[in-house]
Design brief:
It holds the Pfam family RecT. The longest helix has 38 residues. 52% of the residues lie in helices and 10% in strands.
Length: 366
């Protein structure tokens, strides 16, 4: 039987998880712990349940940070197959890492009175109220935060200034409720990336995961039409005509561009369905290639709009965190978002994921 006990002396010496890989006693013990951890239900988030390898990675990271692995696990998430950590956890790690001679200090500057308390209350289709920011880009001018802390062995603090306009990902309702707190979290994370990246090396938060990979924004070629189909659309069963009797190419191109523009602007399913019907009515004029392309675009837009509006409605109808059943509603929303990913696309999905991760600490407590 393997010895899974770790002596106090060993526990004090094994701090770096990379070094721990070469300590067989430590490795055996943490592997056994990960096996138990993977069996958790209420104490372990869904993406770690039954996953011993990821539980082991979280446990090793928690050991390096000298934190409770179950508490760390509750602050993790999965985006595009990458295990990430909430900004709240990253901030706590930096604060207690031992590399600072003092705690972080903050100074909010600029006309925050143009931001604080300026939110609008809206209602979704079910009559549920929610808050949204009620300021514009002009109001953000000059608004920001300064954060500083002193590294051990140094006399002067390292300073970082961050403007509200630099907070690119902020589509959570928490930005309407407490923008100063959200800016403080973001500023500490940016400070740590700049001045002590070794402390959180390999640890990413949602917006960083979103920025790590370049996205191919080239429109996909959705039309799959054979030469035979193109020929049939213009020749088979039709009498030969002169060039003067045919529809001018410029008119067809203009019609196709107009349909593309309408598709991109469609914001509800009724609009998408109406555009699809108009495309069907112009099938003979468009020809097989353009008709197939536009029909596919309209169908894709319908599913995207339907999925996006459905997820937005669920977010806006969430009960307050302290209301009965709030945690269950939030968990159901996470599953709904995962199911809608194939229709939303990476960019929208990542944006919604970031929103839920910002809200999660309010609904799911450790």
């Amino acid at each position: 039987m393997q010895n899974t006990n770790i002596s106090l002396n060993d526990q004090n010496t094994v701090v770096n998880s990379n070094v721990a890989l070469f300590d067989s006693q430590y490795l055996n013990a943490i592997s056994a712990f990960a096996q138990i951890m993977a069996q958790g239900a209420a104490t372990v988030p869904a993406h770690l349940q039954g996953n011993q390898a990821d539980c082991m990675a979280v446990a090793m990271q928690a050991a390096q940070w000298q934190m409770n692995p179950f508490a760390v696990a509750q602050k993790t998430h999965l985006i595009n197959g990458v295990l990430g950590y909430e900004a709240q956890l990253v901030n706590a790690v930096i604060s207690r890492s031992g590399i600072l001679s003092n705690r972080f200090e903050y100074e909010w500057f600029g006309p925050w009175e143009r931001i604080i308390g300026r939110f609008a209350i809206r209602k979704n289709d079910k009559g549920k109220e929610y808050r949204v920011p009620n300021w514009n880009l002009a109001d953000e001018e000059g608004v920001g935060i300064k954060v500083w802390a002193t590294l051990k062995g140094e006399d002067k603090p390292r300073v970082l200034e961050l403007f509200l306009a630099q907070a690119r990902v902020r589509n959570s309702t928490l930005w309407a409720d407490d923008p100063r707190q959200q800016m403080a979290y973001l500023a500490v994370k940016r400070w740590s990336r700049l001045y002590c990246p070794d402390v959180i090396l390999g640890v990413y938060t949602p917006d960083e995961l979103e920025e790590r990979n370049e996205k191919d924004i080239t429109p996909a070629n959705t039309a799959h039409v054979s030469l035979k189909e193109i020929a049939e659309s213009s020749a088979v069963g039709e009498p030969e005509t002169t060039a003067s009797a045919q529809e001018p190419t410029s008119n067809i191109d203009s019609l196709a561009d107009e349909f593309r523009n309408q598709i991109d602007k469609a914001n509800d399913v009724d609009q998408a369905k109406a555009i699809r019907a108009d495309i069907e009515a112009q099938k003979s004029a468009l020809g097989a290639a353009l008709f197939t392309e536009l029909k596919n675009k309209a169908v894709q837009r319908y599913h995207l709009v339907n999925a996006r509006n459905s997820v937005e409605a669920e977010i806006n109808s969430l009960p307050q965190p302290d209301e009965p059943g709030a945690a269950e509603r939030f968990a159901a929303l996470e599953k709904k978002l995962a199911a809608a990913k194939r229709h939303l696309g990476d960019e929208l999905y990542d944006g919604f994921s970031t929103t839920l991760l910002d809200m999660k600490p309010e609904y799911i407590t450790s």
